[in-house]
From TrEMBL:
Compositional bias per record (Low complexity), positions renumbered to this chain: 1-14
Domain UvrD-like helicase ATP-binding: start-end pairs: 191-537
Binding site for ATP: G212, G213, P214, G215, T216, G217, K218, T219
Keyword Aminoacyl-tRNA synthetase carried by entry: no
A cellular component annotation (GO) from this entry: cytosol
Keyword Cell inner membrane: no
Region (Disordered): 1-20
One Gene Ontology MF term: ATP binding
Name of the protein described by the UniProt record: AAA family ATPase
Listed InterPro entries: DNA_helicase_UvrD/REP (IPR000212), P-loop_NTPase (IPR027417), UvrD-like_ATP-bd (IPR014016)
Organism: Streptomyces subrutilus
Length: 692
């Protein structure tokens, strides 16, 4: 695989030097992109909008298009080139002329509309990721480009149809994967591997679950899948919406620039807590681990269903409807039949409640017709709004406030016991009850798990709107009730579920993807496993994988493709704080980001030590820069983040900071696998037995 990097060579004419020709194409492509943007900026909508509402909508669309056409100075406009043996879509005949395409983050065309850069998501771009010597896919040449900042500095060629050229690992590809990380997460569009590309380009109609160990790129795959689906199904997803769900705000801030870098600006991001948040309800309480496990159990859905349904009562008296001089009687047994029929139908409590007055009104209209009258739909609507009918419906099928319902379940032992009978044990019911009953919805000290219960109750009353596609990252940490909350947001859409069973760090972490997907409402989702690691060095992932038999027996360890001798250092020390400061200084001597990860309880002491040493540091979620590259990371927030160099403080304290040893070892596994280039582990207490 010939590589070319004549960065120090004198400038050559574009016609004689391949690198100069490619640079000329880059310059021309940037000019074409700038012209495309200027064309949009010059649009005058004053004569094409019917009213001010249309003008606002159209102007917003134009503004979004201008943002999508931004030329990011330090981001390569294209990263590869494909030379086809034959023009795509034509017969593979002898002598047929091939075509050449530049592959980049977005489509760019010249003044005549001819493409200068092809979007990586286009079908013609697919061989860039999947073609090989064994399956060249009609590609004569695949060229990869190397960049420094936004400047094209090198290229590397693969002649896929040349039997004399041996297959080899791309050095430019390896350099791009290993490039130091400063700032938010970046896209992997130039480095997508064949097995990742298959997941990225899978269809919209089906849901996909990706099990991937540390460094396999599952998060990036999920984000690029969203970008691909928006390209392939833009009209549909523009109507139904897309959403990326992450474990916490720090994580969302870390990934938030990936999709905009690919020209996608409309994808919303949220945590599960954001999804279930309700106006006027503030999370001010916390649950003990045992209580949180029960609140997150799928059986709570049945308890809530029973509690909501219990509000419906059978009518005790007939209903008399007065219209003018006539009185119309509907007997109690007939109303009871209406109620029973509505209860048997699979509709929400609120929808059935709205249907009942119409059923009663219809019964009155039948009697009117039998008496010789000719009522129409307006009469039926009027009867449904009759004061006597409304009063009867309120008595039989009263409105339900989801928050008040959950408040009563958690405060009233008899009410809870009535609806949890044969579902929860008496001990589990005791765990749910507040020690001090709360007086009102607004004054209650709700926990995060309580709001998930309220969200479930709200869906029983009124159906939650569904989106077109949802990406759920770090999914292994969700409780069954949280899965149900996410699943409600994609009942008519599809989902991409991303996670690693070995990194489950909550007491309720899922035991299997089949179980999780069942709670999500996507039991037929395809489960894919990524086992090739591209981020964590082989030495580091092998060390962390010693924990797998204890935390996730049977799960295949990640096989890292990265060799980095000397990337792992384990040191026992008596003066831990001083050793941590010195290790941070040594890590900062290298290029790239540095993360100091420690048990949450040790963060204040380490913050003091860094301050005393004059080392400035960031908190998770704050963007690293060339001037500020050290981040102090509580172990509870490390998941999903990555740093070039990691200093890991006192592994035993990380394990001891969790409710049980298994959860603690899983938390430690997460922390051990955040390093891209090097890991320094410092300890004064004995290491966990699983590591030694």
């Amino acid at each position: 695989m010939p590589a070319h990097a004549p960065e120090s060579a004198p400038a050559a004419e574009p016609g004689t030097d391949p690198l100069a020709r490619e640079r000329a194409h880059l310059t021309a492509s940037r000019a074409a992109l700038r012209a495309m943007r200027e064309d949009v900026e010059a649009l005058d909508i004053r004569d094409v909008t019917a009213n001010w509402v249309n003008a606002i909508v159209l102007q917003a669309q134009i503004d979004d298009r201008i943002k999508a056409l931004a030329d990011l100075a330090h981001t390569p406009l294209f990263f590869g080139r494909l030379n086809y043996l034959h023009a795509p879509g034509t017969e593979l005949a002898e002598g047929a002329e091939g075509e050449q395409f530049y592959i980049g983050r977005r489509h760019v065309h010249d003044a005549d509309g001819d493409p200068m850069v092809i979007d990586w998501r286009a079908p013609v771009s697919q061989p860039f990721y999947r073609a090989s010597k064994a399956d060249p896919q009609d590609i004569a040449l695949r060229r990869r480009f190397g960049y420094t900042g936004g400047e094209l500095t090198a290229y590397e060629d693969e002649h896929l149809c040349d039997p004399a050229e041996a297959a080899a690992v791309s050095k430019l590809l390896q350099q791009e994967i290993e490039r130091p990380r400063v700032g938010p997460m970046r896209d992997i569009v130039a480095t997508i591997q064949p097995e990742q590309d298959e997941i990225v380009r899978s269809g919209l109609s089906g849901s996909v679950c990706v099990q991937g160990g540390p460094g396999t790129g599952k998060t990036a795959v999920g984000l690029h899948r969203v970008a691909y689906l928006l390209y392939a199904h833009r009209d549909r997803l523009a109507r139904t919406g897309t959403l990326v769900i992450g474990p916490n705000r720090s994580f969302l801030h870390y990934i938030e620039q990936v999709l905009p870098a690919l020209g996608e600006l409309e994808v919303k991001q949220a945590t599960v807590d954001d999804l279930v948040a309700r106006d006027g309800l503030e999370v001010r309480g916390t649950d003990a681990a045992q209580t949180a496990v029960v609140k997150g159990d799928a059986r709570m859905a049945e308890v809530l269903r029973r509690a909501v349904a219990s509000h419906v009562t059978r009518p005790a008296e007939p209903l008399m409807v007065v219209r003018g001089s006539r009185r119309w009687r509907v007997p109690a047994y007939e109303i009871a039949e209406m109620v029973e029929e509505l209860q048997k139908r699979d509709i929400r409590y609120g929808a059935a409640r709205e249907a009942l007055p119409q059923r009663i009104a219809h019964a009155v209209l039948v009697r009117m017709e039998q008496a010789g009258e000719a009522p129409d739909d307006r009469v039926q609507d009027a009867v449904a709004r009759n004061a006597a009918v409304k009063a009867a419906v309120k008595e039989i099928w009263p409105p339900v406030d989801p928050a008040k319902l959950v408040l009563r379940l958690l405060s009233d032992p008899e009410f809870l016991a009535l609806h949890a009978a044969d579902v929860l044990t008496p001990d589990e019911q005791k765990l749910l009850l507040w020690q001090k009953p709360q007086r009102s919805v607004k004054s209650a000290k709700w926990s995060a798990a309580d709001l998930v219960l309220i969200d479930e109750a709200a869906d029983l009353v009124e159906r939650t709107p569904s989106l077109g596609h949802v990406v759920l990252d770090e999914a292994q940490d969700l409780s069954p009730m949280q899965y149900r909350a996410v699943g409600r947001r994609c009942t008519t859409g599809s989902a991409t579920v991303l996670g690693d069973l070995a990194q489950g760090t909550t007491p309720w972490a899922t035991r299997s993807w089949d179980e999780a997907l069942g709670h999500l409402g996507k039991p037929r989702a395809v489960v894919e496993e990524l086992t090739a690691g591209f981020r964590v060095p082989r030495e580091v992932i092998a060390y962390a994988s010693r924990l797998l038999p204890s935390i996730s027996p049977g799960l295949a360890p990640v096989s890292s493709v990265r060799e980095a001798p000397g990337s792992l250092r384990i040191t026992e020390t008596a003066d831990l704080a001083a050793a941590v400061v010195e290790a941070c200084r040594a890590s900062l001597a290298h290029e790239g980001s540095v993360g100091l990860i420690a048990a949450d309880a040790r963060i204040p002491a380490l913050a003091d030590a860094l301050g005393a040493a004059g080392l400035a540091y960031l908190a998770p979620g704050e963007e690293t820069t060339a001037e500020s590259r050290l981040t102090l990371v509580p172990a509870s927030l490390a998941k999903g983040l990555e740093y070039d160099y990691v200093v890991l403080d006192e592994p035993a304290a990380i394990v001891d900071g969790e409710p049980d040893e298994r959860t603690g070892l899983r938390r430690l596994y997460v922390c051990l696998t955040r390093a891209v280039s090097g890991l320094t582990t410092l300890h004064s207490a004995p290491l966990p037995a699983a590591l030694t």
